[in-house]
Amino acid sequence: MPRLTSTDDTPQRNTGDRLQGKVALITGGDSGIGRAVAFAFAKEGADLAIVYLSEDKDAEDTRQFAEEIGRRCITIRGDIGDETFCIHCIKETLTTYGQLDVLINNAAEQHPQESIAHITAAQLERTFRTNLFSMFYLTKAALPHLRQGASIINTTSVTAYKGSPQLLDYAATKGAIVSFTRSLALSLVEYGIRVNAVSPGPIWTPLITSTFPPDKVASFGSDVPLKRAGQPAEVAPSYVFLASADADYMTGQVLHPNGGTIING
User: Fold this and answer.
1) For residue range 70-92, what is the model confidence (pLDDT) as tens digits?
2) Which candidate, 20, 17, 29, 37, places its Cα nearest to that of 239?
3) What pLDDT does 228 receive?
4) Which of the chain's termini has less CB crowding within 10 Å, N or C?
5) What is the mean pLDDT of residues 162-183?
6) How many whole angstroms separate alpha carbon 126 and alpha carbon 120?
7) Is 52 a catalytic residue?
8) Which residue in 171, 157, 154 sits closest to 261, CA to CA?
9) d(CA 120, CA 141)
10) What is the pLDDT of residue 221?
11) Which residues have C-beta within 8 Å of that of residue 10, sequence separation ≥ 6?
12) Are 29 and 51 in contact (CB under 8 A)?
């Protein structure tokens, strides 16, 4: 997927060593929010495993950035909607690094439709497999290898709270991710593993131009209090915080970098 010229995924803030010695697996780490998170994690000292579907050039660019600043990064190509591939991702990460400290379930897809009547069974299953089933698959495969102090961070969306008339199946998966996050947090708290989520509002990513018509792209993000869409680099610090010791007293929570929309959730 080509990068947007209006997308800024390079961290602008001062960085340090909050994730030094950690290994993070990031799905959808080749572009958009996932790439920005990968950049931010590398800047904070983490080594990376980037999982992506098909954009080899974008994944390679992410890998090169991490290596240029002295971090290790592997790329793993495939479909996270397939459980066998998810198991492979965890095995590949452990074979390379010998550990896994942060699992970021970020990758998603959306297919706008004007009516529920136009959502086919194939689309419904595909959206749920990529956006939700993959989180179950990857978490199950990773869990035996996560140590006390590990962190799982899931990407949900403002649509989970506001709804979206053109993204019924996508919004449904994002709502399920909120419940999954809260339930998994309760399930793993006794093991010292924290589970949280990030719920971005309108953010400039390649997903926007690839799924919406030009008129919607032109006004994208203008309806939030800050009157603009956010940049991936403005979302990435939420993931760094949740993965770091700064968030040791947080589990089962959702952060909302969304331009000022009041969510109460």
Assistant:
1) 999 999 999 999 999 999 999 99
2) 37
3) 85
4) C
5) 97
6) 10
7) no
8) 157
9) 30
10) 65
11) 36, 39, 233
12) yes
Which positions ≥6 away from 57 have C-beta within 8 Å?
none
**What are the distances in angstroms from CA 28 to CA 78, 115, 203, 205, 213?**
11, 28, 15, 11, 23
Tokens 């497999």 — which residue? 129
pLDDT grade for 207, boundaries at 50, 70 and 90: low
Contacts of 149 (CB under 8 A, 6+ apart): 101, 192, 193
C-alpha to C-alpha distance for 107 and 126, rounded to whole angstroms: 13
Distance CA 141, CA 135 (A): 10
Q: What is the pLDDT of residues 209-262, one digit of tens each?
A: 666 667 667 666 678 889 888 899 999 999 999 999 999 999 999 999 999 999
Burial 126-161 (b: 16+ CB within 10 A, else e): bbbbbbbbbbebbbebbbebbeeebbbbbbbbbbbb
Hey, what amino acid is at 176?
A
Which entry of 170, 191, 239, 249 is annotated as an active-site residue?
Answer: 170
Chain Cα centroid distance, residue 147 = 21
| Structure-block tokens of residue 118 | 């136009």
Helices (H), 110-167: 121-128, 134-142, 159-162
CA distances for 264 relative to 199, 204, 252, 256, angstroms = 12, 24, 15, 10
In percent, how much of the chain has pLDDT > 70?
A: 89
CA Rg value for the chain? 17
Q: CA 149 to CA 133: how far, in whole Å?
A: 24
The encoded tokens of residue 178 equal 């909120």
**Beta bridge mates, 75:** 50
